[in-house]
Task: structure prediction
Amino acid sequence: MADPTRPLIPHPLALIAELTHRCPLHCVYCSNPLEMVRAKSELPTSEWIRVFQEAGGLGIVHVHLTGGEPAARADLADLVAGARAAGLYSNLITSGIGLPETRLSRLVDAGLDHVQLSFQDAREEKANWVAGANAQSHKIELARAVRKFRVAFTMNLVVHRQNLDHLDEMISFAEQLAPDRLEIAHAQYYGWALRNRAALMPTAGQLERCLSIIALAQQRVSGRMKIDCVVPDYHARFPKACMGGWGRKMILLDPAGYALPCHAAGVIPGMTFDSVREHSLDWIWRESGAFRRFRGEQWMPEPCRSCERRTEDFGGCRCQAFLIAGDAQVTDPVCSLAPGHYLIENARQESPTADDSPAWVYRPNPI
Amino acid sequence: MARLADSARPRFAAGCRWGSQGENRVVLYPEGMLRVRATGLSILSLCDGERTIEQIVAALSERYPGAGPLRMREDVEAFLEALRQKRIVDY
Result:
């Protein structure tokens, strides 16, 4: 029976499956939590496949197989087959390491729909420096292999102060590898990127030039390659509709099977997460306290509560509100209407560390 | 808009395919899903990489005799071009 005190719950559309936190790369802007799940706590194959079945039953359309590096799981082809059998569209988000053409071919046979490959830079030395690993040549090899198969191919380029000055060179590099889509994503300041924010934050000049370079490139490659740009939300007037709204579209499962409304939700004090080892995905979506906490508009403070944009951006990102303003209940400080907006303005002015040798911290591997 | 060659054979781009949402047929692609209405569905169902644009328009003109073939060709091209920009259709 409908409970009038509870908001209507739409059905979820996407499942983000963090298969493992193990990764051969150590990117300084990794979105994984600072405290990672250990290898021995990872969900086994059969549990993932059961969860995919439940996801299909819930009306979920896309499953994003991510990590860490999902290819670090020896059972990846079985998981892809499980996702296809559940009627899901599968997207592999990979660093490209551990995925030679023979293995990719098995994934395609198992029903993989889309490969999303991340690049750190066009220049090998710089790319490997950001990744903390010799990864670039493997990535290029995988990119060439992907185009031999009938799968969609997206190249993801994370941009920040250390590489924005040669963005045009990176776009040309992407064109040579011929992806269907190029996602130019500014580093988002969560997890390791927040730790390294001072070295990653673009200057105002870089940002302005970057937007015009992208607009020109979009015209040039139209019809061949679709270029999407994720603007850095610190520089926007209004916050992003984080995760399409809390508990509104997506479920993220961490490698141990705990369900989170978003990647970073673990940073918010007082959150408890339920596991697919103990509950069905359907129960978690409807009942888990973590999903109900910021669902709908009941929790909203002013200025969100009376704001016209509340149905577009849902008050922004709860994790960012906590990370920046120290309170997950307040308006995302990115919003120019937020009382805490000065904190973002201050962060934008952060004095850059010397560009040649920023003192950044690499993401380690879980034990 | 540049006219498509008569011999163009449109089809789904790699990694785009049919799926279902309840009773509706939808197009699945990397960023989401496309709910296509009646005419869109008729057009896309004919885009199998075998039929040429000329054959597709002929088949549609037979099914929807109200629209003239010239107008039909324009509409089909505009529809397909929008999907090509999204990298959902190739030709």
